[in-house]
Amino acid sequence: MADRVSGVVRWYSQARGMGYIDGDDGRELRVDGRAIEDGTFVVEGLRVTYVPVEDENGWHAEHLNIVRHPPGAAERE
User: Fold this and answer.
1) Which residues contact 7 (CB under 8 A, 6 or more apart)?
2) I want to staple 33 with a disulfide (CB 3.0 to 4.6 A). Which of 17, 22, 28, 45 is the partner?
3) Distance from chain centroid for Cα 32
4) CA–CA separation, 8 vs 61, rounded Å?
5) Distance (Å, whole) CA 24 – CA 14
6) Which residues pair with 52 in a beta bridge?
7) What SS3 class is residue 34?
8) What is the pLDDT of residue 47?
9) Spatial contact of 50 and 11, defined as CB atoms under 8 Å apart
10) Is residue 47 exposed (0-12), middle (13-18) or buried (19+ Cβ within 10 Å)?
């Protein structure tokens, strides 16, 4: 498996089950809800780690995990 990268969720739609991450490596990646490990609830401002993968549609994130919740957000158990 490729190296994990950190980033911040820029936008995520729970209704659509997709969003975008601004990676610390400068890439913008799309994320699909199916890539979120353990069915985690994702919101904007969330710091995450993931495996970046490039396909015919550009970069996307796989194996997404939460590193830290944004300030003021309640962590879900």
Assistant:
1) 21, 22, 23, 24, 25, 29, 47, 48, 49, 50, 61
2) 17
3) 8
4) 12
5) 23
6) 61
7) helix
8) 94
9) no
10) middle
